[in-house]
Fold this sequence. Notes:
Number of strands: 14
Distance between the termini: 49 Å
Strand content: 5-15%
Largest sheet: 5 strands, mixed
Helix content: 40-55%
Number of helices: 26
Oligomer: single chain
Amino acid sequence: MDAVETLERAIKTECYVPGNTTQTGTQFCNWVLSNLYDLTEDEAYEAQCGGSDDAGIDAYFSRHGTFYLIQTKYSSHDVWGDVNRLIKDSQLVLARNLNDKEKVRLKELLENFDAFKAEAVEPTIRMAYVTGDEITPSIKDKITALHNGDLSVLGLSDLSSSLEDKIRNVSPRWKNKQVELDIRAHFRLDDTVVCAISAEEIARLAREANDYLFASNVRNFLKSTRINRKMAETLRTLPREFWDYNNGITLVCDDYAITSQKIAVTTPQVVNGCQTVTTIRNVVALEGAAKVQAATLLVRVIRATQETRRKNITRYTNAQNAVRGKDLYSLEDFQKSVKHDLKKFGYFFEIQRGSAAQMQTKERQSYHGTPALAHCEPVKWDFVIPAIVSVQAYAASVMMRPEIAYARSEDLTPLGKYYDELFPQDLDIDVRMFFLPFFVVNYARSRLHYGRSAQGWRKSAQFLFGTVFNMLIGRTSGAFTAQDLEAGSASVSAEKYYRVLSDKVKSIKLLELTDQVLTSFFEDGKVEEILEEQFGNEHKNMMKRKLIGSQWYPLLARKVERSLSKAGSLG
């Protein structure tokens, strides 16, 4: 079975609901947002707006100043018509040519547009049409003829290629490719050559390489940020000053050969400077090479054949930039060791979103889970544990930081504020903690109906559920005292977690007790008063505040203590 057939089967398994085309379409939209755009489960839920008054848009989200309008079709008999409707509907959204119900459904998107325009910034729109069917060559030709650079149209084979390129550090279509560039000056240091290269040459490199040039870069082009607009303005009006104002770019490569006037680079990859390269390419495309002829920029070319060195260059040259931290998980050796160890328990630790969908059937069947934990594993799943969700559950439970897990998941990624605290260099952690808290949080979602589809406090309390379970399991097993709990110190070993969760009767009893504790907590008059006075009766706002040290944490700790008589001994 080839990669496309494997992907088709994976999509059908995860998305298809017999006899329910609406639910199938919703599941497919969620799959696209999670696997193609790397949104978390909560982000994907927030992004979806499909319905009778969606103005033709199934989902929308913004990332670093660019707004994505998404239309997905699990199956379509009229791709060309769908694409044209997406373009037209997107134009209507931008023009605010909407009825009242559409304005309500797209309220957040329209408010974000207004926020940009208030700063005299015109929002940038990217449209994407994604279908689980193949797109015929004739339709692809018609789409290409539109010459719309803000439109992406992906069929099944395109999805497969996109996921494959995302997973690989370097696309096989770019490996060993040699590009020759004119240089204006240079000096060498060890395996690095620092060059002065014209913006015109960089534009030519970008055109020739297309997106393959950025295949291992951890950041997508942030298209319309104010910095990029200022950069484009400098190129147009003060090209000779570009050298002074721009930080330059960093390329890693397999090899290079240099003379006084040229450098030939093999498999060049931009690991820092994606914004600069793409802005230059766009200015040249719009206004011609003559516009940037006088512009020069600094280019570091680093020969880096060892994977470890290449990863470190990628990580640290981006450390002060607007990188999506989730994209750096695939660079972390620690995360890769977790992936290796979790396979022994029958689980696939998905560091790079989309990689599970690319697995061949034989490999997929090698993941079977742990029978002793089947009663608390998620409903309808394929033994795949997304790294970011695993870490969110770990932070909520072990770190007692549900507010970070809920509202600031980026802070838990390799460039995030709490990553080194979570995973210090000398960390000695039982790998089971990467799936046991995950099962607890997902039990709340899949079996107790917590999460984005719930009502009331359960809508935003799935990670607090993991925290309270950790508090209960620690107290009932004697891992810590009531005083420890009151102080917010509640560390529980993986062995105690496993001992409880592998006992079906005890684990379900404790999971249900966790729900009872939270029900009692949120129905408490004092909590309702805090919720109204401080958070406008919005539970999600409360969940974003730090738990330990809050006015309501002692109330929660007391609820846990009072519930212990119901729990019995879990030893």
